[in-house]
Amino acid sequence: MAGGWMCFWDMLSQPHYYIIGGIFLALLVAHFVFSNPLCCKPCHPEPPGSYGWPLIGETLAFIAANKSSKGVYEFVRERHQRFGEVFKTRIFGKTHVFIPGTEVAKVIFRGEFTQFTKSYIKSMHDAVGDQSLLCVKQQSHGNLRQHLSALFSTEALTKSLERMDKLFLLTIRQWEHEKTPIRVIDYTLDITFEIICDMLMSVQGDERFHYLRKNVDCVSDAMLSLPIKFPGTRFYRSMKARERVMQFFDDAITRRRNREEWQDDFLQSMLRDHDCPENERVTDTQLKDNLLTLILAGQTTTAAAMMWAVKYLDENPDVQEKLRLEQLRIMQRKPAGSSLTLEDVNKMTHASQVVKEVLRLSSIVSWIPRVAINDCTLNGINIKKGWTVNIDARFMHLNPSLYNQPTEFNPTRFTENPKPYSFLAFGAGARTCLGMNFAKLMMTLFLHHLVTSYRWKVEDHDLSLEPWSHFPRLKSGCPITVNPI
To answer: How far apart are CA 241 and CA 223, in angstroms?
Structure first.
């Protein structure tokens, strides 16, 4: 026994074991400092929470939640239960503070560019690109937003509405011929992708369309992955797919400039804008990053919201019937076979309420990230420069002090406008979602044709969420059987 102890001490006396021991001791001290609330107290209290392990923080727990059937917000929900409404954590190398509240949201959104700026985790940032409207700095944001807003103007939406309307009608009418339950999410992902690509680049259901769809899906699937660009990882595959998408856009731009192709679409209008003064032009890099951003943001969020609408209306037949009566009245006033117009859509009061309630209850965008430009306090909580402050939209949307019986699906709650900064489905302030009206229009057209064509039954009520999805959607895809009206 004595000989064993002597060997042990001899081993520790070797220089390389001093180094290993020193590293281990440093990690233990760092863990104690970062996680012990008694250490390094600032003049204002920091939010409660945990930084997790040195270097990796709570990143692995965040990824595990996103991989699970409960979805990425389960990571947030668990910490609300442990620490309360406000908490801090450390993921992907950055300190994040999750904080709800209308006053907090007001301060942050009003302080856009001066006190707070937008930022995403690296995997999401790299997916959309440096020059995406979601990521650019203040200097470029205004000019870029002005150019992109042309896609969502009243004129542009009016021009696209007839084709959108016919596409929804054609897709939904096909459902009555299906022999097996219809997986709603598959159809909504297909139709939203087709509508957006048609508006942007006139790319429809040909070989190029399917090539683009395959690669955009690959980019989307890794937006909340560990950003390690090593062969075999989801992030690596995503970045390779992004390169192919950028080349696809490059080829399309070249064909347009060489007059090999001309289309009356968004891309063509953006290329015409190159005639404007140089300091106001959108560069090719900006154009390509934002084409991808518009597809990613417009497809997955809207498709998921449509799926949740089908589920909620199935669970609330009275709401479904009220919506159906409104839509049938509008349809009966129109000549047979005519398309809906914006004037028709503006008359769909209850449909508008249903759309808002779907977005509130599903909270597709669960939180809205901003980065503190300087040290500050929010509701008496110390926020340090460089910290990411996540406005917890889902917590607010389900807060009984803001919404009476918040877990109930009740569209009439939107008969009156909600309290300012309490409904954050599209954000607020200078960076309010540019495609807000476009998304609501697509949802309204979808609901119109659904409720005037069928009654339906959801065949799988499992609430498990799709693993790895950065926006919540059912793993089952919400399968339904339909009965024509």
So the answer is: 12
